[in-house]
Every structure is written in structure tokens, then in C-alpha cells.
Fold this protein.
Amino acid sequence: MADRLTNSAAGGATAPSPPGAPPRITIVPAGLWIRSAQDPQAQPDDPVFSAVPHAPDVRTLIVGAPGCQPPALADVTRALDDLSAQATVIVSMYGCEPGDGPGLAQRLAAAAGRPVVAEYGLLMPGQDGVPRVLATDAGRRESWAPFAQRVLHPPGGPPRLVHWHPPVVGMVPHGRAGYRLVGPWFVRVVPAGLALRRVGLTPDAATDVAPFDPARLDLAVDGPVAELTDNVLTALSRFADALPAAARVRLRLVLSAGTDDMAARRLRLAVPAPQHVRLPVPAEAPSAGAVSRESAQPAQPTQTAQTAQTAQTTQPARSAQAVRPIGRASPARPADAARPTGGAPRRHAVGRATALTLVVTRSGRMCFQTSG
């Protein structure tokens, strides 16, 4: 591993780094631990130092820290590329991920251009000698076992669960990582928690790639909440009560945008838990520096040469006076521009013994000049 990737060791932690500094990467028994440069100083009793490796030829890239912002995607991608050159890599999602967009593991697979195997927690030694993947909740200062243990994230397409736990013991399986609830409704294990779906209804792809947070367990209603009948709400209420205590206390209901208030209240009465409305990810705005292929400037009008016409009156002229134009000059008008119609024509008051001269200015406008 290149020296640029390591700025602290397992026995000691570094001081906080200034903004814009490279990420913190620490050598740990399971592999490497990458964090944001703004993360606080690591403590010697952090669970990350007790995580065990999967196999001698498998290294773990532990990403983030509980209660802290995840490191930049570019930094994680570079660390993954360097570590993959030495051994098989499993990415361990250790911290939280804010927002409703795709999780870091899914974005990492797209950035690296290859599948990424991710675990949502640390592989910790069990009291019975069997290692288990446990997520660390910094707020409650405890660890718990999420339902999605190991997930394969391809660069394109939905993730595929490799190892998972059934949410409730004794449920009838329904497809891969799915379990029947009642009638055509079933629940499926996803990286963020669970998804309530109906047979024949196209699932929401955003639910499959939603980020995982150790402080909560999302139960996403993947469909219109108004279609949940009393029978479905009763079954869902019993299902929520049967969840493990560590999962039930972290339960959060995720609703789609546009959910009716009355339907949300009915769901809250059946399953008392915080509710969150997942808004669609806005489309990227076009670049401000984009230039249209066609010029936005109109073509310059071509002015045609006109012959000056002079109209002399037969009245005798008085003593010469300074020549001054009548009216205010206006910008040049294209030759094919439409002239205003309607209304009375403009009249110019002409006194007695006044000579009128019709001239064409340099801008192409015709006007009268008086003398006399």
C-alpha cells in the first residue's frame, strides 16, 4: 500500500485535519479504515479496532464513522483501487449516509466500473465464536444486527442480497429476500431496511439503492399508501410488533412523495413510528457554460442605399438660419421590418416661408430639415 494512503496507525490517532485535507486512512486488523478529514480523533476502544478479517486473502475497506459525514466518493474510489490490487476487498459501511439518493456503495460501484461487495456493519467476533455483522448506533451507544448483511452492488441495475436475516422468524419466503405478509402484499429486505410491496406492482428502484443508517431501520411503503386496506394495515401492525427489539426501536416509515395526509394518519395509527417522505432526486440542471450550436445573435440587417431627394418650395427664402433636424433619431430599422399601422399619421408643423428638405441620415433614417 502506498504511503500516501496511511496517515495514522492502529495504535494511535491523528489530530483533526483542516478542511480540504486528504482523508484519514488508518490500518486496522480487518484492513483499512477511511474517514473524512474533518472527523474527530479516533478512540482506542472504537469497535473498528475489534473487527476481524473475513479470510487471509480478503481485506476490508471500512468507510466512515458513526455519527460523522462519509468521506468523499473520489477518495473512497482511490482507496478501493489501491487495496484491490493486493487482495479481494469487501467494503464495510460503518457510518451514516444523509439524504435520499443512492447509497455510497452503489455510487462506488458506478465510479469504479465494477461490482462492489458491501456489508452494512462490522464483522465482529461473537460470544459463541461465530463472527456477525453488527451496525454501531452512535446515538444509542450500542450495536445491532441489520437484516441486510452482505450485498452485491453492480455498476448498473439493482443490488443483489448475498447474506441476510429474516425480519421475523416463521414467515413464508417470497422470492429472494422476500417474505409474505397478507394476500398479494409482501416485505423484502433491502440495504436500508425493509420494503413493503405488492405483487404485480412495479417496485421503486430508489428503495433498493437507498442509503443505510445505523441509527434507523427504514420500512418503505413501495406503492400508494391509500391502497393499504384495513386487512393489510392489521397485518403490518402485527409484523412491526414482532420485529426484534433492536429493529423496532429504530423503525421509520418511508412514504413516497404526494402521499395523502389521511392515508398517512391511518398508517401511523396502525404502526406508531416516525414517518419520512422521500422526495424524488431532482434532475441535474444544464451547465451554465453550455453554448448553443446556433448563434443567439440575430443577423445584422443590410441597409440599402437610398438616393437623397430634395424638394424645394416656390416660396422665397428668408435669411439663412441654422439647420436643425426635426424629431429624435431612432435606431436603424431593417428593410423588411413591418411598419406600424393604424392611428393618425404624424404631422409636422411648417411655418410660412420655410424650406423643407428630405434627407437620409447615416443611420438610414429619413427626416426633414428646415431652413428659412
In short: The radius of gyration is 37 Å. The chain has six helices and 18 strands. The first helix runs from residue 73 to 84.
